[in-house]
Design goal:
Number of helices: 16
Largest sheet: 6 strands, parallel
Distance between the termini: 22 Å
CATH superfamily of the largest domain: NAD(P)-binding Rossmann-like Domain
Order of helices and strands: EHHHEHHHHEHHEHEHEHHHEEEHEH
Helix content: 25-40%
Number of domains: 2
CATH topology of the largest domain: Rossmann fold
Oligomer: single chain
Radius of gyration: 22 Å
Length: about 425
């Protein structure tokens, strides 16, 4: 059995800071407080509800993950946020319209006390939003230093031992990685010169890493997914992960596509469309922001199906993704998928999916898990890209030269095997040796 990885204990308080205090962040905060008060259960959270098998099946060892690895307790979490709109978390949650007033009333006193710090925000990167609660500074470096001070002040005011930053804000306009993103020196010079290639999300990521806070990127923005900030994460020994929470339609794609491939069925085309009426839908109604999201959503099928290995089944399949802003739907996103598959003797078949999901209800437990697992990684001395957290992302970050793994079930195995490794348990390969002498 391998030796366990030395992990610092999860003593003291953990701060979770979210750039963005909209639908996802307020649903996450309200949910954790509701659980702490005994009003609800942490449904959707692996850290709180999932078990992990250890050893052989005959040993019947399947503890809860939270009892197997030293995670921070929900009681030790303290919340903070930045947002260009100055509304407190209760007002923001009511505006988002995700949770019923009955559920908000139970935690209203708690939410009303959470007020967002002024955000680093630039309307050029998120064209459909505006707000007065915005930092001012002559350079992007000055703005990023203000974020660093916010993190330090938040830690001191709340007597925190550790902080994790989880991006819960909007999708920024599409940015192509360039020279300024390649090295830390070039990136920091670009901050000083106010280069347009340095988006606000990158400033949050830089500030978090400089304050030794793990950074999780819940949107398809580049943010920390650039060589310069990966260099910084490794230099400072800080975990990073991303990008884009895997919640609704893409989550189902990473379930269904592996099933098609496992049976060696062909794919002629996959058409996906969505209607969404929340702030995210409004932002994505801008073509420049949608392009960022589209790149994240389109990458999944190609990587899972591997047409370069199976050209007879998957070469040149058609993949179309549409997102339409439809205000009456609010946060209750509806997704339609039409999947044209090919079977024996080239006979066509179809799969049709109509998924009426609640976007923030699916995202909130991901925020919790990423915060707790990233804090665990930090205490275990893990630094840089945390590929084992790919389970939570549409467009998982990987080391240079590697293809991301999108198959949800392989991602789950990787996540649990990482936890087994950290605790000195054998990894589960499902290779039974009972048939061998």
């Amino acid at each position: 059995m391998p030796s366990p990885t030395p992990i610092r204990p999860a003593t003291g308080r953990l701060g979770v800071l979210t750039p963005g205090l909209g639908a996802v962040a307020t649903t996450f905060m309200a949910g954790v407080e509701s659980i702490r008060r005994g009003h609800s259960r942490p449904i959707g959270s692996l850290t709180q509800m999932a078990t992990i098998r250890l050893g052989k099946r005959t040993e019947k060892r399947s503890p809860l993950i939270k009892e197997f690895v030293p995670l921070a307790s929900l009681d030790d979490i303290v919340f903070g946020a930045w947002d260009p709109i100055p509304d407190d978390a209760l007002t923001a949650a009511r505006t988002a319209g995700v949770l019923d007033e009955r559920d908000l009333a139970r935690v209203a006193d708690f939410l009303s006390a959470i007020r967002p710090m002024p955000a680093v925000f630039d309307n050029r990167y998120v064209t459909r939003l505006n707000g007065p609660n915005v930092k001012k500074g002559n350079t992007k470096r000055i703005l990023a230093e203000q974020l660093r001070q916010d993190i330090r002040d938040f830690k001191a005011a709340n007597k925190l031992d550790r902080v994790v930053v989880v991006w819960c804000a909007s999708t920024e306009t599409y940015i192509v990685p360039g020279e300024v993103h390649q090295t830390l020196k070039a990136f920091e010079a670009a901050m000083e010169s106010n280069d347009d290639a340095v988006a606000p999300s990158m400033l949050y990521a830089w500030a978090a890493l400089m304050e030794d806070a793990p950074f999780c990127n819940g949107a398809p923005n580049l943010a920390v997914d650039i060589p310069a900030l990966q260099e910084l994460a490794l230099a400072r020994g800080v975990p990073i992960s991303g990008k884009d929470f895997k919640t609704g339609q893409t989550w189902l794609k990473t379930v269904i596509a592996p099933g098609i491939k496992a049976r060696m069925l062909g794919l002629a085309g996959w058409y996906s469309t969505n209607i969404l009426g929340n702030r995210d839908g409004e932002v994505l109604d801008d073509p420049a922001s949608f392009k960022t999201k589209e790149a994240s959503k389109l990458s999944v099928l190609h990587t899972i199906l591997q047409p370069e290995l199976y050209p007879e089944l998957y070469k040149d399949f058609s993949h179309v993704v549409r997102i339409n802003y439809y205000p009456p739907r609010g946060d209750n996103k509806e997704g339609w998928d039409n999947i044209d598959i090919v079977g024996w003797m080239n006979y066509p078949m179809q799969i049709k999916v109509n998924f009426l999901c609640r976007d923030s209800i699916l995202a909130a437990p991901l925020v919790l898990d990423l915060a707790l697992f990233s804090d665990l990684a930090q205490r275990a001395g893990m630094k840089g890209i945390q590929e084992w957290l790919s389970f939570y992302y549409k467009s998982p970050m990987t080391a240079a030269g590697l293809q991301p793994e999108h198959d949800l079930f392989i991602q789950q195995t990787k996540l649990k095997n990482t936890l087994r490794h950290l605790m000195g348990e054998e990894q589960i390969t499902h290779l039974g040796l009972e048939y061998y002498p």
